[in-house]
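dumping this here before i forget
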Amino acid sequence: MILTNASSRIVRIPVQHLVEVDQAPSTIEFVILELDTNEGIQGIGYTFYGGILNRALKETIDVMASQIIGNDPMPIEAVMDKLHRTTGAGPGGMVTLALSAIDIALWDIKGKALEQPLCVLLGGYRNRVPAYASGTLMRQYPVEYLAKASIKLIDMGFHQIKTFLGTEPTAAREVERIRGIRDAVGYDVDLMCDIGQYWDVGQAIQIGRLLEEYQLFWLEDVVMHDDYQGMARVAEALSMPICAGELVYGITPFRQLLESRSIDIAMIDLFRVGGITPWMKVAALAAAFNIPVVSHLAPEIHVHLVAAVPNGLTIEYMPWSLGLFEETPTLEDGQIVVPQKPGLGLAFKKDLEVVG
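structure:
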């Protein structure tokens, strides 16, 4: 089998929300990729950067994909190593995002060629994974909304939900938001909290200690993503788990996060890490430190990855990308069921709005 053609497009879809929100409709753009083979098998992948940079990302994908036309897609490590050597670029930024789309499409081809779901190819540890509701309990909404929306998420079947802090003017106001959610849903629900790098080390320790009585499942991105030593100080000072990793590119930063004992939970972003191949390597690296891994965005692909490894903990159920596909994995009682179709088990919608 050889690769015969690569085609990418920038597409725009409406932003989906788990709970209805009182705001103007918005859209999000992705760069999608289709890789064709001489045996009629097509692999798909996607990635995104945001705004006008998606055009540069598309061009990067096109140039990189052209370098592997004529190659056998099955030895994925060899194909991706060729691209790394050809580009000569480091593990960050635009190149890594482009590599991720290609790597995803190659794994889709491999699964389809072998007639196996991606999860099975990667290890097949389980056939469903817990998912936490994300993207609803946002910073801009008042405490009253957070309480009502939290209850709606629980009624939808979620047992895990995530909220966001970091921008309130006082520690008391930050704590008030968590208290409001806990009062609404109780303590049988896992509650995660994303700080989004807004705090410094002192704030993270001070406010974190105030939050400990509310039994957070984890506290996420408490300080700047590359402040490994500062994050380690926070992790040492607090009893609640510290989670980070979505904002770093490639594999190497995870070694630093793990060796510095900066995190208790590793969050791996499929696109920034560079695709499925490096995602699995980071998961194995984390396992060596007895650290669980969780996902960032893209639940329809991450379900395969988190389900494949014993240290996979939970999946972020952010529905932004679901509108790209004809059918997405089923959500049952707060868990995502691994698709049983070959490869990713996904197909792009035929009527997507193409904008580039």
